[in-house]
Amino acid sequence: MLLLFCFQCFIHCCDNILTISIIMAAVLNTFIKKAFQKSTLIGNHLFRKHLLLTNATFSMAMGVAGDLVQQHYEILTDREDSWKAIRTSHMGAAGLTTGVLSHYWYILIDVFIPGSSLRCVVKKVMYDQILFSPVNLTVYFGTVAALEGSWKQLKAELWEKGLKIYTAEWIIWPPAQFINFYLLPLRYRVLFDNFISFGFDIYSPYVKYRCKLKEHDVNEDK
């Protein structure tokens, strides 16, 4: 009975997320069309000629914004005394590297799985969640480790903190990415990705800096 109840709750949660994602995708698509209808030149520069720069910049900005929100909350709850600019810069850098990675991933997956039929979209969603998401998390934690010089604990962080984020992603990303691959053209996918992942941009710094590693995992990596 408990398993059945949990399964029903999971299905209900996915239905709600799917509905919200559809609405957000439709609103985003409409907004983009209207926003650039009278400014085609700007639209072409941002989402065609300089798409990589647009995706990288927006991803970096969202990484910064997410950490600012998280740090503000930590200060309000007396967990931190002041804003740590260096930490925010690291989150921005992680957003930059994962943004560039996402840019090329969406291009690559369209090459190997062309089309937007139901079968193709389901394949893309599964490849995205099973293959790309762990790679993306590795790049995220690896970027921060490179900047902080914390390579020794990277393995433990990926196993504990990365797994915590990856588990949470299974609730959000499959339905969201279904909408992304099915409704949106390639050039808007990273933008939609960033809107959906803003919650993770807030949650990830919390996991990275507030969740402590188990002592034996830290010792094993020394």
From TrEMBL:
The keyword Cell cycle does not apply. It is a multi-pass membrane protein. The keyword Metal-binding does not apply. InterPro entries: Mpv17_PMP22 (IPR007248). It is found in: Membrane. One of its GO terms (cellular component) is mitochondrion. Transmembrane segments: none annotated. This is Mpv17-like protein 2. It comes from Nephila pilipes (Giant wood spider).
